[in-house]
Amino acid sequence: MPTPGGIRDAADLAERRLAGVALKHPHTYTRSFFARNPHVDPAQRVRLIDDPEWFVRVHLAEAPTAPGGGLPRPLPD
Predict the structure, then answer these.
(1) Tens-place pLDDT, residues 19-51
(2) What HEC string does 43-77 produce?
(3) Which of 18, 19, 43, 59 is the most buried (most CB within 10 A)?
């Protein structure tokens, strides 16, 4: 099983930034935007499932609006 350090070392710079936004960003609205952004990988968005702010969890529960009206990728189990 990969360790958190191993996952971090294997990630590229963009993945590290996204992970930092999803887990540590101090502003509720930034995390909320991240939760409903259709361009963010669902594996990154799902990290907000236990966010302390209800506002962020509500936006995560709503399906993000995909460009052109397409369906967004579902969150992992």
Answers:
(1) 666 577 788 888 888 888 888 888 888 888 999
(2) HHHHHHHHCCCHHHHHHHHCCCCCHHHCCCCCCCC
(3) 59
Q: Which residue has the tokens 């529960």?
A: 61
For 11-23, write each residue's pLDDT tens digit.
Answer: 777 777 666 665 7
CA 3 vs. chain centroid, Å, equals 20
Distances (CA, A) of 23 to 5, 12, 30, 50: 15, 17, 11, 10
Q: Cα angle vertex 14, ends 35, 67, to 5°? A: 45
Structure tokens belonging to residue 74: 């579902």
Between the alpha carbon of residue 35 and those of residues 6, 9, 10, 18, the distances in Å are 25, 24, 23, 11
